[in-house]
């Protein structure tokens, strides 16, 4: 009998949450010299050069920063905040590869997490404790940087302002330019000042190109039959869950635990996939899909095709890019399983 994700209830201590802020296994071995720029997209080669230059600046300043911090009690000492680097582009152009390469290229202590993982860390530890634990870092790398509600806008702006003021370098990826964060997601008028003050601290590097995950590849495999699903789930360390039951389980877990939920799983099988009934379920599925993709865990499903996981309204709303990214990643994982 295959195991079930709904039977897993991982527990993570504060030290575990901070220690987990590293590039996902899929990006353990990536480096700048393993990124192969598309010759038809010159911005990609430029992005590699910009990332390498930023890594060199961070590395060159790390020793001096440590001496200044010890001398001045944590202040950077020059009255200015560090500048950040911001890789902007569409899905599947290698932004995460570049960000992970940058992380690997600089000395520690350093942290790497998705935007959701960073906000989840604050939620789990509290703001002051998060600042305390990260303020001694050389680099904070944030993947898929998005501001989805006013609370996150204020939270992340304040967090990065405090960290950058004490010399923590920040690098990020996103599908949205920094000065456009928040547009189309909420009434941003009251938060424009915070959004703009944040964007002014980043040098933007555009990364263009088609989604490599689907370049020249067929569409996602069709959902399988019940018999095929059960047979596939018989493989070692695989799991098999009813889709609705898994959605309910995800609602009871803090999203910071989704990675631990699937650690050690060889393949995830979902029975009777349906359309996400509401935004809350849909966003939890996005976070779950990200953790599966991080760990390169194949996905096999029955029921609705993965392309129908989100409603048309969702795909044209404020979280459109999140949902399209999830479909892109789940499609790639379904191909891996096939």
Helix and strand layout, with pairings?
Layout: H1 14-19, H2 42-72, E1 84-89, H3 95-105, E2 110-114, H4 115-125, H5 127-134, E3 139-143, H6 150-165, E4 169-174, H7 192-199, E5 202-207, H8 226-232, E6 238-242, H9 243-252, H10 258-262, E7 267-273, H11 279-294, E8 299-303, H12 312-315, H13 320-337
Parallel strand pairs: 1-4, 1-5, 2-3, 3-4, 6-7, 7-8
Keywords: ATP-binding, Cell cycle, Cell division, Nucleotide-binding
Pfam families: AFG1_ATPase (PF03969)
Protein name: Cell division protein ZapE
Structure in a nutshell:
The protein is built from 13 helices and eight strands. With 338 residues, the protein is of the alpha/beta class. Helix 6 (150-165) links the parallel strand 3 and strand 4.
Can you describe what's shown?
The chain has 338 residues and is an alpha/beta fold. It has two domains: 31-210, P-loop containing nucleotide triphosphate hydrolases (Rossmann fold, 3-Layer(aba) Sandwich); 213-337, no CATH class. 45% of the residues lie in helices and 13% in strands. A five-stranded parallel beta sheet has the order 2-3-4-1-5, sandwiched between helices. Mean pLDDT is 84; it is low at 67-79. It holds the Pfam family AFG1_ATPase. One of its GO terms (biological process) is cell division. It comes from Haloechinothrix salitolerans. This is Cell division protein ZapE.
